[in-house]
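Hey all, sorry for the wall of text incoming. These are the two entities for the joint prediction.
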Amino acid sequence: ETVMTQSPATLSVSPGESPTLSCRASRSVSSLLAWYQQKPGQAPRLLMYGASTRATGIPARFSGSGSGTEFTLTISSLQSEDFAVYYCQQYNNWPPTFGGGTKVEIK
Amino acid sequence: QVQLQESGPGLVKPSQTLSLTCTVSGGSFNSVEYYWSWIRQLPGKGLEWIGYIQGSGSTFNNPSLRSRILMSIDTSKSQFSLNLTSVTAADTALYYCARNYCGGGSCFPLLNEYWGRGTLVTVSS
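and here's what came out:
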């Protein structure tokens, strides 16, 4: 299966900063890469798909890029509600697989 | 608004079968564009795709679990179910049911927009 590796595991950020999260695939997933946000006690929420397309209702401060094996998610001007764990998921190769997550915490 | 709710025992003995049901309310259950999935979150770890089922009964399962998975759907009750046989402690996880994402004029079988709250299943004697 396609192994997804996210870095860093934890990111300490101050509100207003613009962190970039990374996701690497063990083999090409083309642009079929999604990002989810998960807050404590909640199910994941779909943020991005197709590497760079925001899902319905997702604010424009979230942006994604990449293709093949290297992807990034950038959160512009981090808001208090953005502190969460972020997962990438590839859906090009079967089975779909998720990364281990990056926790964005308050600095 | 689409809502999903998992139900089933929270404790299963090793070697037995884990059985969960997901009840869906709101929206249409029978659309051919909808894919009903099971995803689990292992303790302190990431997410693992178990499989999905369509209203027709067609299923796709994770190869790592395929021989142990049985999924079914009851469109008359707006429910779908998961049976995972021969469980071990490694199957202890938070189990989610979910429905796929439809947006931008397309529906995507392997992306999930609507999720249940999850149900914790512990495998222990």
